[in-house]
Amino acid sequence: MHPDLLPRVLSLLPNRGDRPELRAFSAMLRDYPERGGKGIRSELLLASARAHGALPSTSAWEGALWLAAGLELFQNWVLIHDDIEDDSEERRGRPALHRLYGVPVAINVGDALHASMWAAVHRAGVPGGLEEFLNMVWRTAEGQHLDLTWVQERSWNLGEADYLAMVRLKTALYTVVVPLRLGALAAGVLPDERFTAAGEALGAAFQIRDDVLNLAGDPAKYGKEIGGDLWEGKRTLIVLHWLAHAPEEQRQIFLEQMRRDRADKDAAAIAAIHRWLLESGSVQYAQAYADTQAREGLARLTEALENAPDPQAARALLAQLRGLATREA
Q1: What is the Cβ-side half-sphere exposure of residue 250, based on CA atoms within 13 angstroms?
Q2: Can you name the CATH fold of 5-325?
Q3: Measured between alpha carbons, how far is 10 from 72 in angstroms, rounded to an integer?
Q4: Per DSSP, what are the bridge partners of residue 90?
Q5: DSSP states of 270-301 as a string?
Q6: What pLDDT sits at residue 175?
Q7: Would you say 253 and 268 are in contact if contact means Cβ atoms under 8 Å apart?
Q8: Where are the domains of the chain?
């Protein structure tokens, strides 16, 4: 994460010390931001701003930094709520906030960070920035609704197109499309419309790679629970591909487990399912699909940035996205 961002984020958070409960609240507000996330989305926003001509120590760069702080706050309040909705155990190598303090308190912390996000957008003062954030919040909520509804209704009669529709809304927009657009706006440049198609492809590659890491990643590097997607009943490209080809006995065991809430799932059965997925070839299928999406997205983005004001920064942005879509952790 850019070194200027965390101090900006923290500067927007209330720090009241007149009551012990409010001192505790202040600490909770800072918990997720201070856990040391990678700052992927804010870094992309700043890289886009540089590529579009925003220079350090200018008002354009200052606006970009505040928008990036807003994006970090968005990421953190969404993660708090997401962890509750998914009944997650961990976040960034530590217990999820609701595991530490309970669901009602964690929801309230997320709501307060949400309010601080809008304060950052206001500080930025970038024309078009408010509209981008509004669209991002709405589209992300729609994608999350698809995900949560499928889990709630125990829906597994889904295909790759369903998964990709959810990913475009829930992940691709706020991970790639909006950071690219916000960076351009901060520099005073109208965002290229090709950013959307490029960002959707790259965002899909990012999410599929995350799904792969959730099953086959290094626990020390991944920062989340390995196999957590199975416990949470997540619809992933890996699982949907496997379901279409799995032996009927394995398929029935899987569906029976997925009808249960997390607390009622059988650990031995989940471990067996995890093993079947790793042995099936579906992980490799998903990774190959992600690689194709990454190549397509990078090709589209290369075209969109062909006449960028700062060609060197544009090349650095492309390299950053290439690493994001093929990351190892």
Answers
A1: 17
A2: Farnesyl Diphosphate Synthase (1.10.600)
A3: 11
A4: 95
A5: HHHHHHHHHHHSHHHHHHHHHHHHHHHHHHHH
A6: 95
A7: no
A8: 5-325
d(CA 320, CA 40): 9
User: Roughly what angle, to the nearest 10 degrees, separates helices 129-152 and 59-86?
Assistant: 10
**Tokens 């912390």 sit at which residue?**
109
Q: Return d(Cα 29, Cα 166) in angstroms, integer.
A: 29
Residue 81's identity, in one-letter code, is: H
Closest CA to 289 of 160, 199, 172: 160
In the chain, how long is the greatest CA-to-CA distance?
Answer: 63
User: Of the candidates 280, 273, 172, which has an alpha carbon nearest to the alpha carbon of residue 227?
Assistant: 273
> pLDDT tens digit string along 275-294?
999 999 999 999 999 999 99
- Please tell me the number of Cα atoms within 13 Å of 22 on its side-chain side: 7
SS3 91: strand
How would you classify residue 128: left for phi > 0, otherwise alpha for psi between -120 and 50, otherwise beta? left
Name the pTM for this structure: 0.91
